[in-house]
Amino acid sequence: MRRSSNRKSSSASAAAGSGSTKAASKEFEKIDHLFNVYADKSSAIIDPEGIEQLCSSLEVDYTDVRILMLAWKMKAQKQGFFTLEEWRTGLKALRADSMSKLKKALPELVKEVSRPTDFLDFYSYAFRYCLTEDKQKCIDIESACQLLSLVLGTQFGPQVEKFTEYLKSQSEYKVMNMDQWMGFYRFCNEIPFPSLENYDSDLAWPLILDNFVEWFRENQN
Amino acid sequence: MNAQSQSQSQSQRRKNFKIEAFKHKVELDPKYAERTWKVLEHAIHEIYNNNASRLSFEELYRSAYNMVLHKYGDKLYSGLVATMTAHLNKIAKSVESAQGGLFLEKLNHKWADHNKALQMIRDILMYMDRSYVPTSHKTPVHELGLNLWRDHIIHSPNIQARLQDTLLDLVQRERTGDVINRGLMRNITKMLMDLGSSVYQDDFEKPFLDVSASFYSGESQQFIECCDCGSYLKKAERRLNEEIERVSHYLDAKTEVKITSAVEREMIANHMQRLVHMDNSGLVNMLIDDKYDDLSRMYSLFKRVPDGLSTIRDVMTSYLRERGRVLVTDTERLKDPVEFVQCLLNEKDKHDKIISTAFNNDKTFQNALNSSFEYFINLNNRSPESISLYLDDKLRKGLKGASEEEVEVVLDKVMMLFRYLQEKDVFEKYYKQHLAKRLLSGKTVSDDAERSMIVKLKTECGYQFTSKLEGMFTDMKTSEDTMLDFYAKQSAELGDGPTLAVQILTTGSWPTQPTAACNLPPEILTVCEKFRTYYLGTHSGRRLTWQTNMGTADIKATFGKGHKHELNVSTYQMCVLMLFNSADGLTYREIEQATEIPALDLKRCLQSLACVKGKNVLRKEPMSKDISEEDVFYFNDKFTSKFVKVKIGTVVAQKESEPEKQEMRQRVEEDRKPQIEAAIVRIMKSRRVLDHNSIVAEVTKQLQSRFLPNPVVIKKRIESLIEREFLERDKADRKLYRYLA
């Protein structure tokens, strides 16, 4: 009984397999086609040049945060490059297989990202995306400031403005690590600004934020 | 006595000689009852009139007995009450009429009489007391007598107030110096107590306490305006003792605690602050002037009142802290660290003596002293260095000729100061440096004293603290043995060369000094190389590096007119001087080139050879105080000294210069980082998850025997450990840290 059912199921799965590849290739056909428009012919990967072209097609700026969001949706590993797998992942999730559909999907994407749980994931992704070297764990302060403005600028404008001002004015920290990056987001969410009334440096806030708060309070006077 | 009343029954039962209980009442004729009562009434009168001797106890007892037996108890009792009352009223009038001082005497006298009477009456009426009184719930005779006395005499309107006034007046007179009849007073107060403690309290004790309180309130106000603290306390003590004595002589014992607390409240508690802070005579002045008696008195008096001792303690603590703060921030005094530490020790001794002599060795005061010292010693971050310098001075020369006990006493006292230090690791670094210099220059007063100090440090801080110090001692001994062996084996080869004495220091045990090699004179170099060969021959796998900045040399020098002197110099100085064997004059640059001694050291070296009066074996042109790179140096032919042996170079432990101090500080901070991290990891490994404050508290506790970690530094270390993935922030509660295995 089992054997026969096995055979049946295996044959069934075989049929499904072949069917799915057909369906798959059909499914990704348009997506792949769109990929090839921007991909480099020799490496079969979209490189920074290709991304620039993609941006102009999408009518967004190269430095726009929506590209970052797109990279996030694609789960892209390397900054400035999209592989075919990543492209497929992203566009499938966005249910876009043409440039017009992709364009239309962008506002939806923005909305999706701003949901708190998704945003947290996006926020930490943004940091990791900037770690270009293999064992790199930190990004330099200049880049961190830019990234903060890009990613949190709309949501927590005043905090970002002050924090980046502080970062640029001090010389103790030359880089920022993931812990400090995540700490700042938590700071924006939990501590009222600009009163900072319930900030307690005896709790486990990263030291860089303790120093920021001290600097901020001093400069207010 | 029973015989007569039972005669009737007995006559009826003569046949059966049995003693049986009564079976029928024996009726007493009421007239007989009245007659019986009259007998008793008369007796009571006689008793009160002191005519009791003519009465027959037996007859009276029998009469009373009969009355009770025949159910005339009521009559007997009420008759008793009436009779006694009548007598007491008469007595009251008699007492009232007494004039002045005789009032109390009369009262006392009458009271004694009354008691005697009462005793007799009670004896007579004993049967009533035992049978009628309980069953009819009446007051027993004795108590009745007392109550009646109380109601009709003591509480009689013409007596009550007068009695109270008289008693209080006598007390007042005694307080102002008169002598009063204490025996009489005692009797009266005892009388009141006998009448019931509430009588004593209401009629005497409460008013007594009130009057006393206002008396002492007034007196204390008066004293405090005109007396200094010491005199005031003497007066208060005297008054307190007086009251205690008063109670023991003529008041009830239970009054003692009440009157003493009234005196304590009025004379001490209410004026505590003012006394303690009194200008020129308060607590602080007493401390400064070692007024043991006054302090002792203050302690025992203030002990009696709530917050008394804590008041003294708090004022003492803030005084000590301030005094200490002034001491440790006095820049003039700090110029001489040995003096500075001696000062601290003297302060400690002084206050120890005060606490043991005047404050009964009270542990809470000892603690206050310790915490004050701990507070101000750490206000100055040069304290660890100063204490090490003090020890250095003592171990070099200060303890010369001292007995073993004297040495122990001094070292123990210094250990007390050491315990107060928060930065014990800084002390360790300095102590190591200073010890190294002492050992290498051979300038230690006693090996035993040195070792004793190490043992004390080990006991206090553990093996880790002292293992390197002990290593230094070992090296010294080994070096001695090595030198003996070297000369034994190599004497033939060495011939007439200079005598070498090498101290081989194991790197790691000794404080690291940056080695700047210099060019040794050829004859020195030769013998040094011979030693190196010898040593490496017996100890393969080791590397020797000459520490030219730490050695000394004895040189024989011949000056003009053939004057010979033996110069004791540092190695650098020797290198410079030897150059003048082949030249009379050399420029700075020539010396620098030939010796390759680093500039700062060379300048110091030349200064000590050319610019110090009495030691100027070199002459400098120009004759300025400082060494410049254009100077020229000449062998000073004209050098003279009354000593044959002249000591020019000493490697004495000096107070560090600013840049050296900064460098030391940095090294200390660097060394602390791994210690903090190790503590964090240890704690997190055992606790797994912990919040920030707890980690800071635990780390501080673990490291407190070495130094006080800065919470900011701890946080930085934690973050570094997070980055290196030893720890992480807990995902659920980001106020917690989690150990990553």
TrEMBL record, chain A:
Region ranges (Disordered): 1-22
Stretches with biased composition (Low complexity): 7-22
Coiled-coil regions listed in the entry: none
Domain DCUN1: 26-217
Function: Neddylation of cullins play an essential role in the regulation of SCF-type complexes activity.
PANTHER family documented for this protein: DEFECTIVE IN CULLIN NEDDYLATION PROTEIN (PTHR12281:SF12), RP42 RELATED (PTHR12281)
Name of the protein described by the UniProt record: Defective in cullin neddylation protein
Naturally occurring in which organism (per UniProt): Rhynchospora pubera
UniProtKB/TrEMBL annotation, chain B:
Pfam families reported for this sequence: Cullin, Cullin_AB, Cullin_Nedd8
Signal peptide stretch: none
InterPro entries the record matches: Cullin (IPR045093), Cullin-like_AB (IPR059120), Cullin_homology (IPR016158), Cullin_homology_sf (IPR036317), Cullin_N (IPR001373), Cullin_neddylation_domain (IPR019559), Cullin_repeat-like_dom_sf (IPR016159), WH-like_DNA-bd_sf (IPR036388)
GO terms, biological process: ubiquitin-dependent protein catabolic process
Listed name of the protein: Cullin family protein
Family label: Belongs to the cullin family.
PANTHER family, per database record: CULLIN
Origin organism lineage: Eukaryota, Viridiplantae, Streptophyta, Embryophyta, Tracheophyta
Keyword Ubl conjugation listed: yes
Keyword set, alphabetical order: Isopeptide bond, Ubl conjugation, Ubl conjugation pathway
